């Protein structure tokens, strides 16, 4: 094997741990490795989690999160940051403050609930997401349930996705991806900055093993930005990557299995 001489771009994930390995920090780092960047992590919470759901969650102290972040950013540096599960208002506000002082694009996945419907964000933290976290985002990536949590809007069609995007942009992110995977028909997402619109369409694969899709998409976008892509190119590349990962998703345990983060690194056939 030839030795690597160039240093890969560095991407930091600030998120919770999924002990089952399909979502959270674990999914983020797998995605980053598959897409050719160096992944680093700030752990915000620990979950007891498997294919059936979340059995427990414990957030880390604010000081522990801040120390991890400063340790990585001050010494190693970052070309992009992705946020996921932040659990509480105190952690949301702390991470937002850290991000505001970091010169790198930020992808915010405003994680509210797990694939199984388990709450991963305290209800009182929603105001902090709106007022502190979303304003520092380069790209925000809410799914339709998270759109409803943040805006009260229930999206049932593509015109509703456009209205939801306008409301999320009103909180301050430069771009928003409204993920329409929960709508019937083809898998469609809307990327917009309020002027340009990009409708990203892909096939819907008949595979129930989709655990980790949101974490994976946000991490793939952050990886693309770290590699120097503009936002539309990074998001389109992430959409392609996630679509392939969903197609290759596999069963684990007795419930919903994960997407396959390594599908791009395996020989075809």
Structural summary, described in words:
With 269 residues, the protein is α/β, with parallel strands linked by helices. It contains eight helices and nine strands. It has helices spanning 24-34, 62-75, 89-100, 126-133, 144-151, 158-169, 213-226, 231-247, and strands spanning 10-18, 38-50, 53-59, 80-83, 106-108, 139-140, 175-179, 187-192, 197-202. The protein has a nine-stranded mixed β-sheet with strand order 3-2-1-4-5-6-7-8-9, with helices on both faces. Helix 2 runs parallel beside helix 3, helix 3 (89-100) runs parallel beside helix 4 (126-133) and helix 5 crosses helix 6. The protein is globular and about 45 Å long. The protein starts with 9 loop residues before the first strand and ends in a 22-residue tail after the last helix.
Helix content: 25-40%
Beta-strand fraction estimate: 15-25%
Element-level helix/strand string: EHEEHEHEHEHHEEEHH
Number of helices: 8
Strand order, sheet with most strands: 3-2-1-4-5-6-7-8-9
Largest sheet: 9 strands, mixed
Structural class: alpha/beta
Which stretches are poorly predicted, pLDDT < 50 over at least 5 residues?
none
- Number of DSSP E strands: 9
Give me some keywords for this one:
20% strand, single chain, alpha/beta, 269 residues
Quick take:
By secondary structure, the protein is of the alpha/beta class. 36% of the residues lie in helices and 20% in strands.
